Amino acid sequence: MNNIQKLLGLAAVSFASVAGAQDIPNHPALTEKFWFGAGIFFPETNTQAQLTNKATGVGATVDFEQSMDLERQKNVPVVMGRWRFGDRWRLEAEYFQLNRNSERVIDRQIEWGDQVFAVNTSVATQFDFSDLRVSLGYSFFKRPDKELGVGIGLHVATYDVSLTGSGGNGQGEDVLAPLPVLSLYGQFALTNTWAVGLRLDRFALSYDKFDGSLTSLGLDVLYQPFKHVGFGAGYRALAIRAEVEGDRHILKMRQVFQGPMLFMNVSF
User: Fold this and answer.
1) In the prediction, which pLDDT does 11 show?
2) Residue 254: which domain range?
3) Which of 94, 134, 229, 267 could form a disulfide with 28 if both were Cys (CB 3.0 to 4.6 A apart)?
4) Residue 19: inside a domain
5) Are 155 and 181 in contact (CB under 8 A)?
6) 3-class DSSP assignment, residue 128
7) CB-based burial of residue 153 (10 Å sphere; 0-12 exposed, 13-18 middle, 19+ buried)?
8) Secondary structure (H, E, C), 15-67
9) CB neighbours of residue 26 within 10 Å
C-alpha cells in the first residue's frame, strides 16, 4: 500500500509540474532571437518653429500646420527590428520619415531668419523630418513569458525646413540631432499567440549651444498565429523640444507626433 501511495504521489507531482509548464505562455516575441516588423504609422502632427536672426533678433514663431497649411495627418511607413543576444540583452531599432510640403498665400507677415514675407505673399514650405531610434536594453527581470528592463540609446532626429517666397527668396535650415535617451520597457505574453509590449524613452539636456528634451511612448499588441509570422497594432507618441544656436541663427522647435500604427512581423 505504501508503495502505491508513493507512486500516486509522484504521479500527482509530475502531473502538476507538466500542467504548470503548459500554463506558461510561449510567445515568439519573447523567445525568438530575431524579430522584424514593417507597417504604416498614422501620426497627427503639431509643429511650431522659429528661426531667429541673431544680429537683428527678427524671427516669429510659425505654426506650420495652421499658418503654412501643412498636412496635420499623413500616413507614413515604419520599420522596426530587435535582436536578442545572451539571456537578457536586446538591441532594437525603429525608423519613420515624414516629408511634407505646401504652398499658400499667407495672411500675416512672417519673419523667418534673414527673410521677411509680407502679407499676401505666396510662400512654399518644406518640412521634412525623420527619426531613427536605436536602443540597447538589459532585462533585469526575465521569465519565459514576461520581462522588464532598462535601456540606453539614441533618437537620431533630422530636420530639413525651408520657406521660399514667390520671387525665389527663401531661407532653409538643416538640423541633425542625435538625442541620447534612457528607456524603460516591458513585454508580456498573454497566451501563446497574444502578447503586449510597452516602452518609455526620456531625454533632457542643456549644453553649450543646445537645449532640448524628448519624450517617446510606445505600446504594441501582438498577435502571432503562425510560427514565424504575426500581426500587430500599436500606438506611438513622440514629443520633441529643441533650441539650436548656429553662427547666424537660432532655431527653436516644438513638435508632437501621436497616433496608431498597424504592422506585420516575422521572427526566427
Assistant:
1) 45
2) 27-267
3) 267
4) no
5) yes
6) strand
7) buried
8) HHHHHHHHHCCCCHHHHCCEEEEEEEECCEEEEEEEEEECCCCCCCCEEHHHH
9) 14
CATH number of the CATH domain containing 247: 2.40.128
Q: Is residue 244 part of a domain?
A: yes
Q: Is residue 250 part of a domain?
A: yes
Question: What are the pLDDT digits (tens) for 202-229?
Answer: 988 887 778 889 999 999 999 999 999 9
- 8, 43, 99, 124 from 238: Cα distances, Å: 58, 10, 16, 26
Distance CA 225, CA 150 (A): 29
DSSP result, 232-268: EEEEEEEEEEEEEE-SSEEEEEEEEEEEEEEEEEEE-
Distance in angstroms (rounded) separating the CA atoms of residues 37 and 216 = 19
Task: Kindly state the DSSP code that residue 165 receives in the 8-state scheme.
Answer: E
**pTM metric for this prediction:** 0.84
